[in-house]
Amino acid sequence: MASSTTARVDLDGNTIKPITICMIGAGGFIGSHLCEKLLTETPHSVLAVDVYNDKIKHLLEPDSLPWAGRIQFHRLNIKNDSRLEGLIKCSDLTINLAAICTPADYNTRPLDTIYSNFIDALPVVKYCSENNKRLIHFSTCEVYGKTIGSYLPKDSPLRQDPAYYILKEDTSPCIFGSVEKQRWSYACAKQLIERLIYAEGAENGLEFTIVRPFNWIGPRMDFIPGLMVQVRVFQGFWHALAITSSEGSLSSLWMG
């Protein structure tokens, strides 16, 4: 593990200066691990925003921890807390991880799913744009929807044509199910907030990066009763991220 005091450089060889990061959803599964990495392997500071801190208590206590001066926990709900803009203003970068992203909820809690992934994210995007702060927003691979090939007849020779089933992130159409199929509420909300972020970049100069994870498995994951066995089976698999940014670049990162 690299020391946070070791000088780090970017791809051009320039020294990376310490920054302050406002991490929304820092107390969750992914946020807790990202906080750990930032505190132990970089000189950056974290303003950890969440309604719970159970998964990052080991990073907050005791005060004698080597990074004690580089992390603050702010217990707030981004839906209705005026402190959010102030935290974004005093940060160099905002990372938004807050979302309902459990498949079991998409059918049973579609309203909460849509609000969490679109409506509640609106102030974050707005404050970043108005205050000229870069935004890293975590979306989902589900914004890609279904392939064209999935709608072709089973005996169609076109099903063998890669043009109908290989995904091209920048050109493939995003095909979702009908409105009554509430399983798509998550993907649709995520895609709409992506489009809003993209529009803020195009019209108002917002600098952003959108991350589209496929699957996350690991410690501190919120397990669902009945799915424990399946989760354990997938622990050894590889998972991918698709990343797009306001500079127009897109890349895929595979992680074990």
Automatic annotation (TrEMBL):
One Pfam family matching this protein: Epimerase
Protein name per its UniProtKB record: NAD-dependent epimerase/dehydratase domain-containing protein
Residue ranges the record marks as coiled coil: none
InterPro entries found in the cross-reference section: Epimerase_deHydtase (IPR001509), Lipid_A_modif_metabolic_enz (IPR050177), NAD(P)-bd_dom_sf (IPR036291)
Highest taxon of source: Eukaryota
Species of origin: Centaurea solstitialis
Domain NAD-dependent epimerase/dehydratase: 21-222
